[in-house]
Amino acid sequence: MPPKILVIDDDPDIRRLVQLELTGAGYEVAFAHDAVSAMTVARKEQPAVVVLDIGLPGGDGYLVMERFRQFPALETIPVVVVTARERVEARAKSLAAGARAFLPKPFDPSELRALVDELLPPEA
Amino acid sequence: VAAPLPANETERLQALRSLEILDTEREAAYDDIALLAAEICEAPIAVINFIDADRQWGKAIVGLADTEAPRTDSFCAHTICGEDVLVVRDTLEDTRFADNPMVLDDPNLRFYAGAPLVTPEGYALGTVCVADRRPREIGDDRLAALAALARQVVAQLELRKALGLLRVQNEQLRELDRMKDVFIATASHELRTPLTSVVGFVKLLLRDRLGPLGEQQREALVAVDRSAGRLIEMVNDLLLLARADADHVTLERAPTRLDELVEQSAQAFGPNAAERSIELDLSLHPVELDADPAKLAQLIDNLVGNAIKFSPPSSRVELRAFSRNGTAVLEVEDEGIGIPEAERRVIFDRFARATSAHEHEIGGTGLGLAVAKTIADLHGGRIACDAAPGGGSVFTVELPLAD
What we know:
heterodimer, A: 124 residues, alpha/beta, 5-stranded parallel beta sheet, 19% strand, B: 403 residues, alpha+beta, 6-stranded antiparallel beta sheet, 5-stranded mixed beta sheet, 45% helix, elongated
């Protein structure tokens, strides 16, 4: 079974972009497009890595990470934050909220894949 | 006997209130005028009074303890009903004042002379008045002087009004500026999201990840990639400038080697320089300073990129890094088209482009040097532009070694 990556982003084009990049690299990709469904999908899919946008409908990415930490099954999943928000502040807040990596938008998709490769737990 | 109300009482009170002078602290300008009134009229008492709805209030007072009194007892309430100086030579002889508590009781006023403070709009807001505890005469010269002092008080009031307006306008301008910053920050964020798709899909295509590309297709995509890159750079520049305006930039300071950053920049620009046979000449001494390495790299890139861009083929660009008197110094010197002396100071303004750049049809946004200056400023440093001995330009950046 290929490792599963959960992509949480409200922009359909960016979801498709990340999907093309990650499936091309042998990953399986699941999606959520808002903060609420993010929880449901994450618990159902049990992804190996989460790619998380910050500006989301129904609560921002920081809130999503906060909720992840409340579930033992989710709290250890490595999260890489991708956002168009101002870099210095967003990176600091993301890392404080428990993100393992931060990539400002716009990004080169291969950079994102490299980060996902890096964050992938050895057993996945 | 209480004074009648002036015909324009409602508007008069509005004009008085809008000055926001009632119950304010003492001010030297008004104190001085009261003092002059007392001296000129040789009176023990002098007051600048304003007549409020039901009281008189003294802005400046010589020789009296109380700052206010009921309007019904006010001499000045009578004065503001006319345009001329009101003189009461003996209060006991005047039916309007003979039973006034300020006459019968402390401070036992027996003489009064007051000039109304009439604004250009015709509102008598108060008076400059003098008083004495004995009946007396007052000459025409002194009455004229009292009227002149009243006009000086009105001039002060007009200044106060103008200052108040300026303050309001200033606040409105600040608000506009804040809105502009919010707009730019939002716009920059909203631009980056679609740019993520543009850049991302182009990169996928260029790596043949979505199928093999023909030569012309590849050429077209390389152009799209380059243009999108410039757009991203411009969005980043605009966002940095807007945030710097709003004081929202946080530097991520760390021990940083200026010489190493310059070397990296030179390497990155190596191909561009080589393309046009421009020689990059490095003279680097180890310089470590407390700085934000990413932002400092951006500053260096902007200067090095400019130097190459504005240089003729087969010329030289010199990059020097060294320390001098507790300052890290970076010099970027080219043999390019130069910047006319008159433009060297404004060249760091946003969207400023040298006339020489237009003449040589060299493109650019006019943001690069504004960003460079902003980054230098954020580090407590400075940046300057001079003519190089060889005819081009030399840009000098000086940054403090420690914050």
